Amino acid sequence: MQTSETPAFGAPARLFHWLTALLLVGQYVIGWLMPHVNHDTRPVGLIGLHLSFGATIVLLVLVRLAWRFSHKPPAESSTLPRFMRLAASATHGLLYALLIALPLMGWANASARGWAVSLFHVIPLPALAATGSALGHTLGDVHKLTAWVLLGLIGLHVAAALFHQFVIRDGTLGRMLPGVRKTR
Ligand code: HEM
Ligand code: HEM
């Protein structure tokens, strides 16, 4: 069996990728475990944690995108068909868009409820909607729905990564996990 390595993303890009993934796992678990939110709910306990975690995610993704735009990614495999490269770019673009839009919608909903959003009660963050805002309330429903859309897209992305590794065997996984080798 012949093995070879593929060019990988730099350490900061890989750190951003895996840290986002880890925080998202935590955020979904908190989102599903936290008490049902109604008009007299207070943002304490797991709900407070959901707000801080979510705000951390959107800030991290903004820094990650700034890094991504200022650092060229490693060259792509030229053997991949054009439609596959386009599908990958579209999925990645949509993942980034949802990683920004989803938390901002939750944040606007929190503001509309009159909840102060902060990073773990240490760094206060501005309100994204006026208290009582009808749009902010609607965005809460869209937030819950979009959380499922993001989850579906992550499922597709992970399935694609595994398909590359075990079926196409082109070493794509090694671009985010350099320890993983391509096998032929
Ligand atoms: C990528 C980040 C985020 C993910 C994956 C996420 C996910 C979720 C999930 C799974 C739920 C529960 C839905 C349900 O009960 O069916 C939820 C609810 C909620 N989230 Fe997030 N969330 C994120 C960011 C945020 C942020 C940043 C805030 C506010 C600062 C926030 C505020 C809320 C609120 C207020 C609810 C309750 C909405 C309602 O019941 O009307 N979320 N979120
Ligand atoms: C859980 C949440 C995850 C999110 C939100 C996510 C998001 C992303 C995004 C946005 C990119 C594009 C990077 C760029 O070009 O700037 C990417 C790349 C990548 N991800 Fe993920 N990812 C997640 C989990 C995973 C997992 C679990 C795997 C492995 C099983 C994985 C494998 C990869 C690989 C191999 C690449 C590089 C693709 C390439 O360069 O063609 N990701 N990810």
From TrEMBL:
GO cellular component labels: plasma membrane
Gene3D superfamilies: Transmembrane di-heme cytochromes, Chain C
Cofactor(s) the record lists: heme b
A Pfam family annotated for this UniProt entry: Ni_hydr_CYTB
Main location: membrane
Naturally occurring in which organism (per UniProt): Caballeronia sordidicola (Burkholderia sordidicola)
Membrane topology: Multi-pass membrane protein
Domain Cytochrome b561 bacterial/Ni-hydrogenase: 9-179
Homology family: Belongs to the cytochrome b561 family.
Gene Ontology biological process terms, A to Z: respiratory electron transport chain
Key word Methyltransferase present: no
Keywords assigned: Cell membrane, Electron transport, Heme, Iron, Membrane, Metal-binding, Transmembrane, Transmembrane helix, Transport
Record bears the keyword Cell membrane: yes
Subcellular location per the Swiss-Prot or TrEMBL entry: Cell membrane
Protein name per Swiss-Prot or TrEMBL: Cytochrome B561
GO molecular function, one term: metal ion binding
Transmembrane segments: 15-34, 46-67, 87-108, 115-135, 147-168
